[in-house]
Design brief:
single chain, alpha+beta, 9-stranded mixed β-sheet
Length: 166
């Protein structure tokens, strides 16, 4: 079977004690700004484009890579990679809440406690655990988180830093 790699970039954007989250039309909950790189697009350029498109903010430099999340589907052997950046600098004003029926993404700087609660409510461990561990200071940047999808369940395997298993 052919292994397909799906990639995604996402970014932590902070403003004082607030975190930027976005809501997609028709999708439940709030997420970090995220999206897929286009063919031939570097991860940093993809992050800059995604933040501009989803939140209306300009990102001159993406900032450090916080972690990589790798999910392998055990049935198909497909790999899904997410690269999370801690964006230190950004410019502009985020989109406000979308009007009912709008196809536009809503973007909002939420107080950190509220944003953390939104992320904690995510049903998928790959969209929840690495983010919360970093935000709560349980881990610093530089981790690779490994998960497998087995019969529709995302199972945590391990996280690694500098070649040592934690």
């Amino acid at each position: 079977m052919t292994k397909i790699v799906n990639q995604q970039v996402a970014g932590f954007l902070r403003w004082h004690d607030h975190l930027l989250l976005v809501a997609q039309p028709g999708a439940p909950g709030w997420y970090l700004p995220c999206g897929e790189p286009r063919p031939g697009e570097t991860l940093d350029l993809a992050l800059q484009r995604v933040v501009q498109q989803t939140a209306g903010l300009s990102v001159p430099e993406p900032g450090p890579l916080v972690c990589v999340v790798r999910l392998v589907d055990m049935a198909t052997r497909d790999e899904h990679m997410t690269y999370l950046f801690d964006v230190g600098q950004w410019q502009g004003t985020p989109h406000g809440p979308a009007r009912p029926g709008s196809s536009r993404t809503a973007a909002e700087f939420m107080p950190l406690a509220e944003a953390t609660a939104e992320l904690a409510a995510q049903p998928r461990p790959t969209r929840r655990e690495p983010l919360l561990a970093y935000l709560q200071g349980d881990v610093g940047p530089g981790y690779v988180w490994l998960y497998q999808n087995d019969a529709g369940q995302e199972l945590f395997i391990t996280r690694m830093f500098s070649g040592s298993v934690k």
